[in-house]
Design goal:
About 40% of the residues lie in helices and about 15% in strands. It is an alpha/beta fold and about 700 residues long. GO terms for molecular function: ATP binding; ATP-dependent peptidase activity; serine-type endopeptidase activity.
């Protein structure tokens, strides 16, 4: 369940492809009694020692080094990309064949870095300069000329020198003429009139004679002395900046106007000629701009005209300007939906589509890549000290934790790079020669996201006002768990009350708390589960479900287990242990399915003072809890609603309902494996594997 307006599914969808994940370690048995925590049977619930042993596993990098200054950083950007081997291969092929690319994936996974790397792979010899010349036959239709890189600068300088010489010669001739008039007027005793006549001649000459500067071509695109093909980031560019524009001229006559060709400004598509044009969040471009971009891709040239109808440049339109660029578009999955269909078709027909991975396997080779990543970030920043081996190991531990999956390392390297820089800033402020693990740990405390800070404030406020209970038991009340912003957990109390139906025809399920689509569907599904599990026909009752304090809305289905527990507790009048928090999605057959953000939810429960937390068994291997929370909370992995009831309900009456649930749910089914891309595609397009 996501407690955030900006999220559509529980946590990040990459956590969902572990539904068919097979655990290599034996799963520890669970304690049949949830109410009595003082028992110490051999099959005690928690495999805490085993879980902690997994978490405390040392980071074996595979080689030793003093600090990251000893790590060699590749010179080419393409060799600095981590964990995106497929994308790197595609970029290399696209660069050699001049193909377009669309990269889709989570922000911070290296899309812009790959686009920059592509520009480095393009041949420098093909670069061109673009000049705009005046058209004496039609001043509003400037001429375009394409010349080799660096040649345009020479041409403009030569025209300027020639214009300067002509201007000097003309000025000298006029001065001699004026001086002659003044001398003549002196001899005819009309000196004053001679001076006035000379001044008038100079003014009229300057006003009406053609200026030599008007014939100087304008450099629209210059690639003088560039080491690589141009890389232009046109993300968020308006139509004028993207397609080119003509500057407004307030003086349109009387000899004071600026020549039309001199007011022409090249757009990003022209500046990217023979290079790379990168557009992130391409779906945010207006459809008109996307249509024009499609034309530029097809024709490889696009004339520049005034983008404002009210501007004096609206009548100016140049000859077609070359714009033979490679377009690298990027975005999240929603970008695919909102793109101009013809533009996407052009990319698919003449290029590649790449899905960016957001995690990689935790292997020795990939840990070495993260060591190099830290060295790269230190080198790029240039103001922070290098990291010693202990500091790098702590960064790798955080990469494991942020991946949210057992045996994986995160590839959201922009966020991880932020941690590196904050840790380096702390070391720099202390005057330390190297960044150590203590600096990284301090950075983790300081560099918390806004959502994490809000979640901490939320928990403190809810503790103060006792919005959720931390001890005792209560009927129809469950401590659910949610994520805020994808990296912060919160405790979300859920309260249920069952009353006789007001309508004689059928009862209703009334849920409050600004529920969104998936959350509403989860509530509806729970009614089927309750009917099957308890034998109670909920159609004869009004079931009230309240998500306490959800002012920002709730989305996702990871509250299904919590809702079912609260409703069953309310129907059967069996209390729920308030020291327990829980999360998990529930199938209509009573199986507990995996959810996202389980680590952050566990930490939120521990921070809130809970003693136990129930999670899906499929998420057991994904738990990477911080050391500060490991001894504070007991983690109970479950696979069915019967196990949830076993560990959450209290009192002698719970055994009856548990036996009934076990009989109903003893038939299990295999959970199909779902890849991250497929999960997001199902949510967005309604497609199936």
């Amino acid at each position: 369940m996501v407690y955030n307006n900006n999220q559509n599914i529980d946590g990040s969808s990459e956590n969902m492809d572990r539904q068919a994940h097979k655990m290599e370690e034996p799963v520890p048995k669970v304690d049949p009694s949830a109410a009595d925590q003082t028992k110490d049977e051999p099959n005690k619930v928690m495999a805490e020692s085993e879980l902690h042993e997994d978490i405390d596993e040392d980071v074996d990098i595979g080689f030793q080094f003093e600090d990251t200054s000893n790590i060699e950083v590749p010179k080419l950007l393409i060799d600095q990309v981590l964990g995106q081997e497929h994308a790197v291969e595609v970029v290399r092929k696209a660069a050699s064949q001049r193909r377009h690319i669309m990269m889709i994936g989570t922000p911070g996974t290296g899309k812009s870095l790959l686009a920059k790397a592509m520009a480095e792979l393009l041949p420098k010899e093909e670069l061109k300069d673009i000049l705009v010349y005046p058209n004496l036959e039609d001043l509003n239709n400037p001429k375009i000329r394409e010349v080799p890189a660096g040649k345009g600068r020479e041409i403009v300088m030569a025209h300027k020198m020639e214009a300067r010489k002509k201007a000097q010669a003309r000025n000298m001739l006029m001065m001699l003429f004026v001086v002659g008039i003044i001398i003549y007027s002196y001899f005819v005793s009309q000196l004053l009139w001679g001076i006035i006549a000379g001044i008038m001649i100079l003014m009229l000459t300057r006003q009406f004679l053609p200026k030599e500067e008007m014939m100087i071509p304008k450099m629209a695109v210059s690639n003088y002395d560039k080491e690589h093909a141009p890389y232009i980031d046109a993300t968020g560019a308006h139509a004028g900046a993207l397609l080119g524009d003509v500057r407004h001229d307030p003086f349109q006559s009387g000899g004071l106007e600026t020549p039309a060709h001199d007011r022409v400004e090249a757009g990003d598509i022209h500046k990217a000629h023979k290079g790379v044009l990168f557009i992130d969040e391409i779906n945010t471009l207006r459809l008109e701009s996307q249509q024009s971009l499609l034309t530029a891709l097809q024709e490889k040239e696009y004339p520049i005209t005034g983008q404002s109808e009210r501007s004096s440049g609206a009548l100016v339109k140049t000859e077609p300007v070359p714009c033979d660029f490679i377009m690298v578009s990027a975005g999240n999955l929603d970008a695919v939906q909102k793109m101009h269909p013809a533009l996407r078709s052009r990319i698919k027909g003449y290029g590649y589509e790449v899905y960016m991975r957001d995690s990689m396997e935790d292997t020795h080779e990939n840990r070495k890549k993260l060591v190099r990543f830290v060295a790269q970030e230190v080198m790029r920043d240039g103001h922070i000290p290098h990291f010693d081996e202990g500091a790098v190991e702590e960064v790798i531990r955080e990469a494991r934790r942020r991946a949210g999956r057992k045996g994986h390392l995160t590839l959201k390297l922009r966020d991880l790079g932020g941690l590196v820089r904050v840790a380096g800033d702390i070391a720099h402020s202390e005057g330390a020669p190297l960044t150590t693990s203590e600096h990284v740990l301090a950075a983790k405390r300081i560099a918390r996201s806004i959502e994490q800070q809000l979640a901490d404030s939320y928990l403190e406020q809810r503790k103060e006002y006792e919005s959720f209970l931390r001890k005792g038991s209560a009927v129809g009340r469950v401590n659910g768990l949610a994520v805020m912003g994808g990296d912060s957990g919160i405790v979300l109390p859920i309260v249920s009350e069952v009353t006789p139906a007001l309508s004689g025809a059928e009862g209703r399920i009334i849920a409050t708390g600004k529920l969104k689509t998936i959350a509403k569907e989860a509530v509806q599904n729970v009614s089927a589960v309750i009917k099957n599990m308890t034998g109670t026909d909920v159609s004869r009752h009004d079931v009230h479900i309240q998500f306490v304090g959800t002012y920002e809305g709730v989305e996702g289905d990871s509250a299904s287990v919590s809702i079912a527990t609260a409703v069953i507790s309310a129907i059967e009048k069996i209390p729920v242990d308030q020291t327990v928090a829980m999360t998990g999605s529930l199938s209509v057959r009573g199986d507990v399915l995996p959810v996202g953000g389980v680590t952050y939810k566990i930490e939120a429960a521990a921070q809130a003072g809970m003693k136990k937390v129930i999670i899906p068994k499929a998420n057991e291997a994904d738990v990477l809890v911080e050391k500060a929370y490991r001894e504070k909370i007991q983690i109970i992995p479950v696979s069915s609603i019967a196990e949830v009831m076993e560990h959450s309900l209290v009192g002698p009456r719970k055994n009856t309902i548990i036996e009934k649930l076990k009989n109903i749910t003893k038939l299990s089914f295999d959970i199909p494996e779902v890849s991250p891309a497929s999960v997001q595609a199902i949510n967005l397009f309604g497609c199936r594997n």
